[in-house]
Amino acid sequence: xxxxxxxxxxxxxxxxxxxxxxxxxxxxxxxxxxxxxxxxxxxxxxxxxxxxxxxxxxxxxxxxxxxxxxxxxxxxxxxxxxxxxxxxxxxxxxxxxxxxxxxxxxxxxxxxxxxxxxxxxxxxxxxxxxxxxxxxxxxxxxxxxxxxxxxxxxxxxxxxxxxxxxxxxxxxxxxxxxxxx
Amino acid sequence: xxxxxxxxxxxxxxxxxxxxxxxxxxxxxxxxxxxxxxxxxxxxxxxxxxxxxxxxxxxxxxxxxxxxxxxxxxxxxxxxxxxxxxxxxxxxxxxxxxxxxxxxxxxxxxxxxxxxxxxxxxxxxxxxxxxxxxxxxxxxxxxxxxxxxxxxxxxxxxxxxxxxxxxxxxxxxxxxxxxxxxxxxxxxxxxxxxxxxxxxxxxxxxxxxxxxxxxxxxxxxxxxxxxxxxxxxxxxxxxxxxxx
Lengths: 181, 244
Description:
Radius of gyration of chain B: 18 Å
Largest sheet of chain B: 6 strands, mixed
Strand content of chain B: 15-25%
Radius of gyration of chain A: 15 Å
Order of helices and strands of chain A: EHEEEHEEHHHH
Largest sheet of chain A: 6 strands, mixed
Strand order of the largest sheet of chain A: 2-3-1-4-5-6
Distance between the termini of chain B: 47 Å
Oligomer: heterodimer
Largest interface: A-B, 39 and 41 residues
Shape of chain B: globular
Number of helices of chain B: 10
Structural class of chain B: alpha+beta
Number of helices of chain A: 6
């Protein structure tokens, strides 16, 4: 049976969601041998306005590269959550940063509300790695891309001197989400 | 030929990238240049970047008319283009339109960009520039690429002045793609006097040589904080940049 999984990572510019999307797609395609596309778009005022990264992972060829039936939606802003929650598939997953998204929608999907940015700050001292904490959570919640593949993809994207910090952020997210499942 | 940079493209994606570059070669009006490829691809083609990631294709257009013509221009029947934006995203300093292209089922991000003044910046010495020319053999197929691509040093000058780089420096974004590109070029060219002469000339077209030196020095001073502590800063380059 064919398999297609759609991710949408949404928030505002500067939150590192485009990078997180790229890492996820690279992990799936380059390191896990699956088919994957990653696409991005910004709202007006690219840096500071809305930002959206979509990743599709499939074991078959990907005919259409846009996400239409979201299996996992990550929201780093209330605006993104309000805008995209209607696109989540039945039994899909909504993951939100509870520090930014307080008004949770109801629907036929599972909701994980976790203080992603706060976790990044407390555990690593850097809020900027919240995107990698979220990536760890996504990896654990979906089991679509292997943990090892994502770690390899992270390492190919970050400078040597920050490898430890970024992998730590990813693993913290992975562990927190595993406990929340 | 088989260029080294192709090794840094995921094997599954090589053929499709070459097909897209061949298509862009056909679409580019080289007599009256209408667009130029900017961004990481130029650094990749010139062997500054040696890692395997998903590479995007950034196309900088001369003006809105050229962009419109490009969108309307007839393209190969087997090429599929999907628009990601509903409309051109117009911002203060840059306007962009995001698309994805594929010849089969392997999709590449192709971003159309308008940025006032920057087409002229990238093409100001176009008479002396040559397009990137390559006949690339992949399996049984040969791809003919002849495409104007931004000079990699122009890209570095632009990145040093970029507000995005300034923001990354201020917020200590260690995953900054722009910083990574700047460091990659610096490592190879730091002791090359031709490089320094060139970038100072091009900096004069943007915010000036003095501002360029200040910003470049600031980046070098902070490299360790961004994870590039193993980068050797040459005394020669510090002197050129005016460090005391």
